[in-house]
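Q: VWA domain-containing protein, please. Structure only.
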Amino acid sequence: MGINFLQPLFLLLLIPAVYVVVRWWQGQKQMATSKKMTIAIIRMMVFALLILVLSGLQLLFPVQGKTIVFVADRSASMKDDPRIISFMREAVQNKRADDQYAVVVVGATAAVDQPLTLRAEVQQLGVEINKHATDLAEGIRLAAALIPSQARGKVVLLTDGVATHGDAGRETQLVKERGIEVEVVSLQQPQGNEVVLTSLQVPQQLYAGEEYAISVEVESTIATQATLRLYEGNREAGSQRVQVEKGKNRYVFSQKATEQGFHRYRVEIEAQRDTSHANNQATAYTQVAGTPSVMIVEGHPGAASNLVSALKAGNIEVEVKELAMLPKELDAYKQYASLILADVSATQLGETDMERMRTAVRDLGMGLIMTGGADSFGMGGWFQTPIEEALPVHMDLRGKEELPSLGLQLVIDKSGSMTGDATGYDKMELAKEAAIRATSMLNAQDQIGVIAFDGTPWEVVSPQPVTNLSAIHQQIGSIQADGGTDIFPALQMAYDRIKSMQSQRKHIILLTDGQSGSNDAYDALLQQLTAENITVSTVALGADADTQLLEMIAQGGKGRYYFANDAASIPQIFSKETALASRTFIVEKPQVPARTGAGQWSSLRQELPALRAYVATTPKQTAEVSLISQDDDPLLARWQYGLGRTIAWTSDLEGKWAPDWVSWGAGSRFWNEIVAWTLPQVNEGTWKTQTELVGGNGKVTVSVPSGAAMPQELEGIVLNQQMERTVIRLKPTAPGTLEGEFAASEPGSYLIQIVEKGGGQVTASQTTGLTVSYSPEYGLTEDGEHVAKSWLMAGGGSFITTPDEVFGKELPEKWETQLVAEWLLILAALLWPLDVAVRRLQLPDQWWSRLGGLWKGRKVQRSSNTPQQEQDAVWTRLEEKRAKRRTQAQPNVDEPPKMNVGQPVKPPTESGRKVAAQQAEQTEAVLGHKEQNNADQAEGKQDETFNRLLAAKKRRNK
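A: Structure for VWA domain-containing protein:
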């Protein structure tokens, strides 16, 4: 054990502490020596304890056990090597009882698989991580963080040495500075026959009719025959039979740009001799300039036929798509300048389709127009969807106090089958989201009730006004799926509860995914419901639902029946049902729209025709409303959303609601102006953009044309296949060159929108892309052991080969520290009252005399003088007394005594010494007796004086 001081300079305070105690000692003339000695010792101890606390006194104990953290490389290149777990288990068998270990797994990221433990057996690895990259530096960093600062620690990596991310050498050096060793177990993987498609190059920009070449690069470890196939989108555009040589190979496809727009090309190679097929494809993008094209999606056939005719008359290219043919890739939307949804219901689209559309508008600059109809806006269930976010209007009605009130009762199946479906959706969570969305559409004068059922019904939300949405949503969120299914009792309870609601309209929505557990009399119950003007709609979720029963209930309840094969559509169905039940969204009131002045389209300056109906919405705060109704509802609204522009036309296109607008002479120009406003308005960037994969990152390089000014602000919006958005800032790296990087470890397509900004406005843009066809883990790599050796040498690490080296090697000594400041403070606090007691309490004099005698006795006990020395001491005292008497007897004290100069003083003989000693003792006894008599006389006088004073005091008191 040792000691250590965190602030050793504070020990210098001992000097002034000693000085203070000494000065105090010198100032105490009247205090008994024994008392002074006791107080001085106590105070010096208190000062010393406090100074030790300030100096940070620590007790040091040597650390006995070792702390080892294994870092297991589980990236794809390791192929789940079984040697990892066997090596760790054999190593742990050699550890001592006080040694501990942990296991960290690493891929693109690192995670703790097994925390620090003293257990003698390594468990099977179970934590899943992203295997498409290797970041050994992150693994070393996390492993070092698990090792306590005072532990004797070591990090042991089990890897092939190949890292696609991070600087493992630098991280090794950093942990080495902390006193943590880094060792590597090299587990090289066998390299088979590999043919890798490494690059696909396509010109970035093309013009219609232009001929161009597509370059393909292939790298191989063997010579073999192979077939190359080229795809434009999903259409095969060419193929070649090629001879692949060992090393690098290059092949060319000749093509002609026939279709304008944004195109994706993909090349695949099929080799006769190849080990892995995951690295046999590559993708690239190009833009073919030409006339912009508009995609129109109809909710039902003929919904946009009038619009198609008007746009074609204005020379705008139009493509009408069925809902089932919507693009399933984000880059496919880049082929179109604008998208029009004509009377489309949200229940006809999936959430992913809506997200693609919203992302294409916000980040790729595509336009969006929604037109009205019986299945559009709020009537189509678009409330709280990505499309509503992009449009300039809200789907619900806000601030409409005169609307008729609605009493809504939701009946939701909570049986065990609602936990999940084959597509991975949690049906119970989607049902709760649907209920929450439906309540959010209601106004303060409306009422809501929620019943959940399995074998028996449970009232989740009792009938109440929609005034405390947060509390209602919290109650809905508490529903948990379990139990069986019995519909009739739940429907009976819903009828009992909705009868008590004080509202003008009453509606029940029933959702279930199973068969009812009993056969009850539904007809009588439905007759009671319809007799009181209560409608019932049903939603059958999945093929296992009792579709016949639910359809019968909807017909008998004069409501609507929905079959939802996809659980993700439940929220849209509930939103649509809520809107339909209120019957307030469709406004049937013939009128001529009023102009507001916003949106100076020339066609709106003419006399406007009348319309008969529209879907009521609420304009967003920053939207521009060009046409409004007599009730101040928006009929035509627009705004900028991200890089794109969107428009809402709340009447229809077929002529049922606005026949005069269909026959209006300026109708074709009106719609051409509206669609043209949504087309991309920024210029195409003139710079040249190149993308490439560097390790696990995508790199974007922008080259500015010679003589052109450098952009003030250039950024890239990166969108992956999950439509996750990343914004990167492109920074100058050389004259006329700007670069930026983004994480691209996951295989897939990354669309990149390059945007130039000036004064806060977008001045130019350009779309490009990067496709990671396969993980870098599947590419051809160099010798992993050689790579590991290079960064180990840079960082100060080493290789090990056998498991017994893990715990067998000695590690640098480390010490555990124990702060004792609290104990020192407690001891000082206990001594301080003792100091006060010694100074303040009037103890009897004989106590101090005994204490003084004790000190003297100890001194005598410590003395080891001989008898001869004691006689010499007596002789010395006798001579001192004789000299004192002679001095007192001299008449002139100023005259010094006469001495025989030059004559040495002879020491007395042995007999003389004994006589002198006896005389000295007699003299001391006589003097002592006299001194004692004098002291007794003085004490007697004091007692006599005290008695006289006491008697006088008594006389006065009488």
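A: Brief note, in case it's useful. Confidence is low (pLDDT under 50) at residues 859-864, 893-906.
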